[in-house]
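Hello again, I could really use a second opinion on something today. I've been staring at a protein lately and its backbone has me curious. You're getting the sequence in one-letter code plus the fold written as tokens. I'd be grateful if you could look everything over and explain what you see. No rush at all, and the record is pasted right below:
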Amino acid sequence: MNSGIRRKLFIMMVLEIAIWGAWLPLIFGYLPSLGFSPSAPPAALKGIVESLPKFMHVLFSEQGLILNAFPVAAIVGMFFSNQFADRNFAAEKFLAFSHLIGGAAILGCGFTKDFWPFFLLMLVHCLLYVPTLSITNSIAFANMKDAQKEFGVIRMGGTFGWILVAWPFTFILVDWAKVSALNPQGIVKWFDAVFASGLTGDALKSATKWTFVVSGIISLTLAAFSLTLPHTPPKKKEEGAAEKLAWLEALKLLKHPFVLVLFLVTFVDSFVHNCYFNWTGGFLGASREAGGVGIAGNWIMPVMTIGQVAELGTMLVLGATLKRFGWKMTMIVGVLGHAVRFAVYAFFPESQTIIIVVQILHGICYAFFFATVYIFVDEFFPKDVRASAQGLFNVMILGVGALVANSICPMLMQEVFTKDGITDFKGLFLVPCYAALAGAAALLLFFNPPKSATPSGGGTGSAPH
């Protein structure tokens, strides 16, 4: 691959994941500020929802419907949209179309405060965005000579995109009236004043609308940039005909106990992983009086990117770790990382330094569990169903686990563990802490894969980092 194409593919990955990274971390605190309920359905659906079993009600709450647009799109993508796009459109043209319409939709979320327009815009964005996660991979693989050597570096662009998009918000989520009142003299003092004047409270929640604006601008930029990417024609139907029901064959492999255990633990870990995104932003930004850490609004997203920086380093040692400790222990460490982080959240909320440092564990959790799962599937599943098996686990990671977390987490935080404006973060964070401990115990006791495959480094997952 020549350097020009490699550079374009890297930029494509940076922009692709930056779209997601712009709006995801802060949306969980933004929706309550718009008055959307974490447990009650919109009025138009109230009669329908009340006829459903009670445990399903949170799925159809106002916040649940919006937050679950993404995992529902991931599930739909597994069974329809990814394959449809792959076989009927040139990849770069589908990418351009999806990011044009999807970008306009997420941009619109920044300018509406009513439930139905917000929900429909988010749904359109997610249904068009999720397939592009696999389409960008298809474009990259189609234009590589040596995928094993080249893909890791190109895919790393996505992690950089998630990190980079957080930093403009140190200048966006700022109380400029406070900066003006300080009247800083000189560029150094001006930066000091800006960095120390982050928005908090209701002002921060209101300004969160700019995360959707930034995401939309990046999406529209990628729509234009996609037209400069190498032409990647649609796959012929006969090339993929044998895989039409490959996901059913992959599903049959759940009859093996070690595969079933891994599948269920993947659900648990995805739930815990999404608890992090649901709660960390609000926890970091909440005042000390409200039980939080008290970090200024313009620093929340940069602090949360520490995990992605750690991920870059962890991925470099993942192959060696797998060879030294094996599948089981590596995965257990990844799951236990969640337990340790949430325990720190629960018992040391008064220490900003400890809370910031423990973000490192987020990258370790991702690499040692999710990335390891993708590698494991590639090693142990039959070649003819391998891609569908990856998709099956992706449905659990991006779909079902996120669906449950996004339905339950808002209600737990806003209604169960919050009284008179004060959140019991200790009790809240012990929920995913105990869930992670249970997942690690299940791996230790019941996950016994055969020893025929040799672990190797890599991983091509697309879970939120």
